[in-house]
Amino acid sequence: MLHTVNKSPFSHNNLESCLSFAKEKDAILLYEDGVLGAQAGSKLESIIKEALKKHTICALKEDLNARGISKTVGGIKVIGYPEFVDLVVEHKVVPWL
Amino acid sequence: MLHTVNKSPFSHNNLESCLSFAKEKDAILLYEDGVLGAQAGSKLESIIKEALKKHTICALKEDLNARGISKTVGGIKVIGYPEFVDLVVEHKVVPWL
Amino acid sequence: MKIAILVLDGPYNHEASDTAYNFTKAAIEKGHEIEGVFFYNDGVINAAKLMEPPSDDRNIAKRWSELGGSGVKLTVCIAAAKRRGINDDVVIDNAKIAGLGQLVEMAVAADRLITFGD
Amino acid sequence: MKIAILVLDGPYNHEASDTAYNFTKAAIEKGHEIEGVFFYNDGVINAAKLMEPPSDDRNIAKRWSELGGSGVKLTVCIAAAKRRGINDDVVIDNAKIAGLGQLVEMAVAADRLITFGD
Amino acid sequence: MEEDEDMIQKKMMFVMRKAPHGSIYPYEGLEVVLITAAYDQDISMLFIDDGVYSLKNEQNTEGIGIKGFMKTYFALEDYEVEKLYVDNQSLKDRGLSKKDLIDVNLQYFNRDEIKKLMDEQEILFPF
Amino acid sequence: MEEDEDMIQKKMMFVMRKAPHGSIYPYEGLEVVLITAAYDQDISMLFIDDGVYSLKNEQNTEGIGIKGFMKTYFALEDYEVEKLYVDNQSLKDRGLSKKDLIDVNLQYFNRDEIKKLMDEQEILFPF
């Protein structure tokens, strides 16, 4: 399954909730304000690193660029819209809005 | 000052943020989904109790009733719209939306 | 006391519009003067005249319009309204579409400003 | 693959509408078939024809309408639209106001459904 | 609305995670559930996070002037919507227990069971 | 817009706590700041929580098709909007530091100082 997270993990519990309901091997996509969670060195970095042991985590390049985020947590896969489409083709989607 | 909080503290960081920026003696009003934080026995009860030592915390009766919340944390003042108006008359307002 | 109300969110989707309305009514009942209600951001959709909610539900546009008819000044931000498809053809009676300057004037003239939104 | 898109949030206020549009375009470019785009909740405001954003900004209504013109089926939920003041007089070309049943039919017919919103 | 006897039946889950009344999502989500039921789909509703408050008993929305929709939950059985799943942890976090919820047929699950239920679905709608 | 020489001047603070682009609040908030400046008010902008991302350097919104508004911050001085306050802790929580922000005149404060600044205001606008 693909879990899509569009809210900032600093202001909303969406990512936290997603991580507690996602099963091992599920993929997670951070997009819109959700990409703020991908920033390296934040107070959430350890949670993201822990999550990377169980999940593929992707972050949408276009949204990262819009917010000026260039340093992402190591292990996060930066993808574009075409790969976002591929993820949806490959997985059923659980949106965390 | 009066801080108004309208988001659920379980899903948003508004209350947490409000508490970290409110100065001692400031009043806090929980309304709309913000009243979910007033429920007794939740995982946030200790945070609310701690906050009550420094702040007057009110919760809007109409919103509590709408959500079926009758057991509120001891010390929270349950008020109606007329008292909400009084609070605004007495204080400058900082909305945490 | 003169109270100004700023509404940043649309009708129905969030409770903000209801709270703003209930608060405004309560303030009037307490004898306060409403300096104005300013609709900004998605708040402009509160003034969409074509709104037709189910008959057993509140009609938010109509409710605001009636409040305007009773003498409360309702202002809809023109820039925000244009983005959301609200213009003079579809705006409720008793509300005026105008510039953001009206918000500043309202804020300066009032003793208090309170914002409702999402 | 047949992909269905559900849009739950309005234009401009949140990025959801932009993401839905960008995703839909990307899916088409990848050769997938869009089973339909369904606008529900505040999403119905995407179809407000009277929208006039600043000239240097994207026109979200126009953009969806053009996508509809290129053959993508756009459906606006009638109940949600009525609440927000969207009716046949002000809906964009190439979109149809219809019942929620269309959403179910779209979901059943598609291989995937993805929801964008706030 | 039309019903198609030959329509494919899919497993659809409505993930209710927002609080009622503060936003219209839980209400408009329920509207989708009712329509979907008329199309004879395999429906379940999952209540997690603040979504559990949709099932809170003794809701009275009169004071806020918003129409309540608690009664609809009692009618769901007539629509053959019978899979109502509640996340135990979400209840506990909010200081709620089974006795705080309305008297309809609810099934309570832990996270691991819910992960499995979600995984079995073909479509998940977020409300 | 009209300017009134005799208009009362009030202390108005714009509390920017939402992330840019994900919602229009930081953009439409900035529009209010510009208008308010034309009315010669005593304006300050406070960047807290995700609001600090409005000041992030190297934003490029081309890929999402949304008009960026970073350049407006460089023009604020011309509007005599000169009190731009940043919360140190919000930056730190997000893994950001001063060098990650645009090159405009920003003042950095700790929470206790910000509490005092907020308290001095007559009107606080949330965006």
What does this structure look like?
The complex is a heterohexamer, with 2 copies of chain A (97 residues), 2 copies of chain C (118 residues) and 2 copies of chain E (127 residues). Chain A is an alpha/beta fold. Chain A has one domain (2-96): Hypothetical Protein Ychn, Chain: A. Chain A has helices at residues 14-21, 45-52, 61-66, 81-90, and strands at residues 2-5, 27-30, 56-60, 77-79, 93-96. In chain A, α1 links the parallel β1 (2-5) and β2. Chain C has a single domain (2-116), classed as DsrEFH-like (Hypothetical Protein Ychn, Chain: A, 3-Layer(aba) Sandwich), CATH 3.40.1260. Helix content of chain C is 33%, strand content 22%. Chain C is built from 4 helices and 5 strands. In chain C, α2 links the parallel β2 (33-39) and β3 (74-77). Chain C is globular and about 35 Å long. The mean pLDDT of chain C is 98. With 127 residues, chain E is an alpha/beta fold. Chain E has a single domain, classed as Hypothetical Protein Ychn, Chain: A (3-Layer(aba) Sandwich). Chain E contains 4 helices and 5 strands. Chain E has helices at residues 25-38, 70-75, 88-93, 111-119, and strands at residues 11-16, 42-47, 83-87, 107-109, 123-126. The two termini of chain E are 22 Å apart. The model of chain E has no long low-confidence stretch (mean pLDDT 95). Classes of the chains: A alpha/beta (97), C alpha/beta (118), E alpha/beta (127). The interface between A and F is medium-sized, with 25 and 27 residues.
